[in-house]
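Worked example 4.2. Below are the chains of a multi-component assembly; read each line carefully before continuing.
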Amino acid sequence: MLATKRSRSGSLLAAALAVTGFGATAAADEVQRWGVNFPPPASTTAQEIYDIHMLTMGIATILLVIIFAVVIYSLIVHRKSRGYPADQHFHETWFGRWSWVFVPVMVLGVDLTIAGAAQKTLERVWVVPQDQPLLDVKVIGHQWYWEFVYLDHDVKIESRFVPKEEAGIHYLREVDNRLVLPTHQRVRFLHTASDVLHAFWVPELAVKKDAIPGYVTETWVNLTREGVFRGQCAELCGTWHARMPIVVEGVSQERFDAWIEEQKQVKLAALAEATAEREWDKDELMARGERLYNTMCAACHQVDGSGMPPAFPAIRGSAVATGPIPRHMEVVLKGVPGTAMAAWNSLNDLEIASIITYQRNAWGNDTGDVVQPSDVNAAR
Amino acid sequence: MTTATHAHADHEHHGPPSGLKRWLFSTNHKDIGTMYLVFALIMLFLGGASAMVIRAELFMPGLQLVQPDLYNNLVTNHALIMIFGAVMPAAAGLANWMIPLMIGAPDMALPRMNNLSFWILPAAALMLILSFVVPFFPGGGTQINTGWTLYPPLSLQVGMSMDFLIFAIHLLGVSSVLASINIIVTIFNMRAPGLRMMQLPIFVWAWLVTAFLLILVVPVLAAGVTMLLFDRHFGTSFFIAAGGGDPVLFQHLFWFFGHPEVYILILPSLGVLASILPTFSRKPLFGHHSLVGAMIAIAALGMIVWAHHQYTVGMSLAAVKYFMIMTILISIPVGLIIFNYMMTMWRGAMTFETPMLFTVAIILMFSFGGLTGVMLAVVPADMQYHDSMFVVAHFHYVLLPGAVWGLFAGVFYWLPKWTGHMYDEKLAKTFFWLHVVSFNITFFPQHFIGLAGMPRRIVDYNVMFTEFNMISSVGAFFFGISHLLFLYIIIKTVRGGEKAKARAWESAQGLEWEVESPPPHHTWTTPPTIKTA
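Applying the procedure described above to all two chains together yields the following structure tokens:
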């Protein structure tokens, strides 16, 4: 009932705005503008959480109405300008003498109602049920992208924000690789982080859990419907905290299985390519390097290599990228402790070689160096 | 209740020393109170300016005014300046001015320490401002992009400005602890003969409870940030998982301080209301003893609920159940305070001068903030609210009405006492309406965008959140401008105005109204005699 009411008033307001030309676009239907409540739940636990939220909000609203009513009545009636005589002994009546007992008892009653109603949901959300097989997904937060590892399938995807031109209306809530999950299947998320704190939050799934270096925290969901569910990182994680969207795509089990198979093939092909015993020529490495650099490095070091000093040094003309190759490889493979520069050793040799070759030859860094995958392998 | 049987004889030995010395070397509670209040007012404008930039950036999607790190730095700065620079010193200013007057003491118990605890503050503020400014200079390192919570490991990545901030927090902590010791000793030892503890005004009780809270929790924050400093520079790994440390430990230390801190900010202001309500309702305070009990209960419960700020870190089921239930139980003493205040108004003969207007607004808006607090305490639902704009809306509804408005109400209530002039009631009422209405326009829509899925502390957002953010920003600009009117009213009152009587409000009760307005430099050099009715 509340949902329909919300959408009606929402579309009315949006229409009014469109008429006045106040920023509502033709695509207003695609995103829930003027949203005033949780989006419609898409998992079993999200539904329960939604119900608890509506219950406590209802109780809070009733209490607020009572408080407002008493105060407003008093403001109207008990005023000097109406000649109301102040009751100097009100605090000494039985009401005044015993209110310190019955007010807490009444509030305690409300408190226990709320806490009692939340208990079952809390237990269900908190304890991952083990009586049916679970699909385990490891969620790793990085500055500033998400890595999802399907532990049962040996499939790993990285999920990054996409620029405005590609994302359109979903800018900041759209990614390059979505987290694909099957519906009607219990999924366990295992959260951790590689650098700083992050938090995984998708409102439709009502899942929020911190990703903490050194910790593995867990949550679970069971999607009740197919669809695309958008969320964001919810724990301040540094410069590009606003650019860590999470997009979950709920699909049928069959489509999920097909998708996993496809990912495996992609991975095998990439592996075969990277381990091929061959010399790569500079143009090939530069082309690959540019693509990888723009995906993985440009958020901090910028597409033109200028960086954002002092947090993120420039690569264009830098001592590292134009100096000795071993030092350059060390920075990329091992990171720089105490800064946001991570160790990128999870990339394969070909990827590292491409990125380093690109960095050493792009934007006027004309060193002419070509780094081969075998060089990277030797440096590991 | 207490009454002074005779006003004290005026033993005016000497007036205040003149010039800079009067302020630098002051040991006079009134002068130090004034300095605290002026300091807080300056900080209010600094913290407000950063809030204006934040709201301007969030006016529409995209990066318009500031880069992300500067935005996060402003978020950090806004919180720290408002909490440590504006609200706490303002409350300390009221304590300095009013506690000796209210309990019939000639001054604070430890006047030289009083001077020290104030004069540490400008140094601390300088460090705090430096921590914001240093990154703009060459070689100044990166900006503090962690928010005021300073969570590691992110705070370990920040440049030298974090060290300035850590030392600023140390200094602020020293200042608070010294002031608290002074207040406790004053209340225990300096009461007029015959004035029993349970006869003390609620404002004095509120500050007594607050002072104990400060002494208990500020050292924990100091320890936490010192460990941070060691992790940053001396090779320890208290909070570094790779070295066997625990990033979550810092959160426990921080919130063991941080949650009681909320009550440290709120209790003095709630205490002010207990002075204002009987005056303008023209009847005695309802439930004096239960207010004392409720404040002690809030302090006790407030110490043992800290982890409700960290429901999402992955604590055990038993732990979150405990923190949920204890947190919800805080509604009992808070509810009792609200109830007592409503019942003080009930069957009164009310008039609505500005302090009373603020008080009524506090009762309504603070109740609202408290009720969203109960919603946040419910763990499963908090999985949605946590770190969203809903939280931002909630704590601004608690801290503005609960802390800041109480201070405004107190300033308007006692300004005639301090300056000897009545403030301009018409202007003050204009300020009240402008302030309260624009406050609601600013923060009410933030509940909606939070529920709809907007995280807090983001510099740029999806178009779906545009409309409410625009409304919020427009409200915020009016809200910000309203404070210029507040400043003008204060300056105008200090400079002149209708002469205030000793008892500036016709039915005001309490020893502070037995002395002249403005009070002479030294008051209660002969203690008043307390007659118990």
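Take a moment to check your reading of the output against the notes. The longest strand of chain B covers residues 2-4. Strands of chain B lie at 2-4, 530-532.
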